[in-house]
């Protein structure tokens, strides 16, 4: 079991003071310590954006891919070694703009991945442009007259695309986010946690104060097995009506559990040995 | 065929079958080809079809010989026409004494066909109905008739039908047998005087397989221990994925159809990072989408094999026709510098061998290996003795799966190759698309950048020294003319130079790293050199100039999607060796 000290690296976080990424980083490390996720059983794949720097600050074997492409890399890893806990750190631009196609298809295939969307509704690393989750009318360097595009809801998109565990968290509630990350990874199948986080430097709309004022947790009476109700709930984004927690969960078999090639052991545990080819060649004679 | 420089003693029989797409032209051709190889012959077949599924004009040519045959032919000895287009487009290839077979019920106009061509009216449709078969079995009737006309063995055809259709049930096999017999008997009864001996059983011929380049790539990957393939469908490489998908459970690897080519290469990179031997395949347009992943594999030092089956470009281009226009693209795709190994196969056997080797090279040098094949290789069938893999050894290079103390993934070494490991091994490392240090942490320090860039690029030098073979020269060591080429032109060039004692052929299969010294030596000593390629800008000629400083003046280029024929290469050879040919000379350059 790793301790927090085991997870530290020589690199100091370079996020802006107050950035939501600090809290997501803390929650992920807390979850790792609690669950014993380490270099013997887990791997982290990140995209490109402020979120992607996380690979330098957690001593967990990682792959930092290209902008938008974390999900297909993670898919390949999971298919090659399905015993690994495979986490994807991605941003709202990374996952929903450049990588939107991969996100939709990963959801419908129900790969056993845990996708954490660092959702600050802004492009931070490129110094403040509108993202797919920025609200209509949003003012940024790329939309000085206000954003004409309507925002996309990652939670709605995930439910519609077939993800089998869909949740929304708020970065700065570290204990609850830790819990959500653990539940997401426990789920067999594709898990999405849309994590609302402020960008203290460039997003003056979605501040800590905004999220603290306008979010609430889904209560015990909420039925997370009802896909239609979850879809409807995910569309709510009004003052004091932004829900947090698990929107939807179902027990469909994961992609990996349906592959006969993986029934006994991970792909990479098969010995690479000389293959008898002549019987196969006979099919071509 | 006679030329002024020599006599081609090889007898090649060429059958062409044409019809609408959906009429089973390709299946009929392959059936005939397998009867030929099972009768002891060698075959090469060439298929032409437009990018649609029904209608349009499909044609397959099967060249049969007792010796190896490696190219299509401009002449046709027997033409089977299922539609008027076949007569209109191909009757001119029939020389006096050749044959034309069709069903009179199709009411084909043959008024323009050379009067010295033998006409065989065989009622395909009526014989099919009498056999109780479905309409597509008209092909089987036609093949039965052809086997009879060429003096072949009906039992070989019937055994083949049993092998191919037994899982469709005894009824299907029996009806197909009947169809084959009816065509066979019709010719025996009506054209007994015309029966030839082209397919007379060859004794003691070795067992052969018939494969396309696509199938050869898939077989090579399986033989190399493939564990993961992600391939998005695209002409002309789709049959790689069909073949891989069919045998995945038997051999335990995974074929995954991704949502696009970007995902394909990233999935393959992810699987490889986790320790699986991985590949993808595409054509030029898909390789455009893979370009960013190509460099990602180079930067993160992740092995991956990429097959590019080239078709006519740019954009959608000529989807079902051949070109060799992606050489420069494969050599330069992606921003910045990284070590890329680029190979090119000249036929299906080379595609098989180079695919197996590509997996070892990718693992050893921890970098992407691109294998170029062109559509003519992808989709044309050729017969070969069963491939021999006894000398192949799976080599995973410097690779550990156990925990190692003080492990550094990107530690510099004398050969540029560091020890690779996998997630889950307990070793901590980061495969980082940002420039990184020895562990993989992001860095922008000058020294880190220089160390890592130089380490990566050193691998290419190591590869050139340890693994790159000298290129192959076919023909005499001393020659009046040296042909330089690559890719599928190999077959037609080999066929063409059989006629000459003073022409040799430098066939290049390694493009990066490039065998600079050997090529320079050969070409600087050659009396006269011609570059033959299927692209507009003579990309190989440019590469040779870049690498050796030598400029090749003469070229034979085409970019119409069609393969070079041995005949047009001979015409060019005759011009350059200044021998007047009796036949009309056309300069196609």
Strand content of chain A: 15-25%
Q: Rg of chain B to the nearest angstrom?
A: 26 Å
| Poorly predicted regions of chain A | none
Largest Cβ-defined interface? A-B, 56 and 69 residues
Tell me the overall shape of chain B: globular
Q: pLDDT below 50 for ≥5 consecutive residues: which ranges of chain B?
A: 1-8, 580-589
**Biggest β-sheet of chain B, characterized?**
8 strands, mixed
Highest-level CATH class of chain A: Alpha Beta
User: What order do the strands of the largest sheet of chain A run in, or round the barrel if closed?
Assistant: 2-1-3-4-6-5-8-7
Q: How confident overall, as mean pLDDT of chain A?
A: 97
CATH architecture of the largest domain in chain B: 3-Layer(aba) Sandwich
- Helix-strand topology string of chain A: HEEHEHHEHEHEHEHEH
Using the coordinates shown, work out and report the CATH topology of chain A.
Rossmann fold
Question: How many helices of chain B?
Answer: 18
Domain Thiamine pyrophosphate enzyme TPP-binding (chain A): 49-195
Cofactor (chain A): Mg(2+); [4Fe-4S] cluster; thiamine diphosphate
Organism (chain A): Candidatus Uhrbacteria bacterium RIFCSPLOWO2_01_FULL_47_25
InterPro entries (chain A): 2-oxoacid:Fd_oxidoreductase, OFOB, PFO_beta_C, THDP-binding, TPP_enzyme_TPP-bd
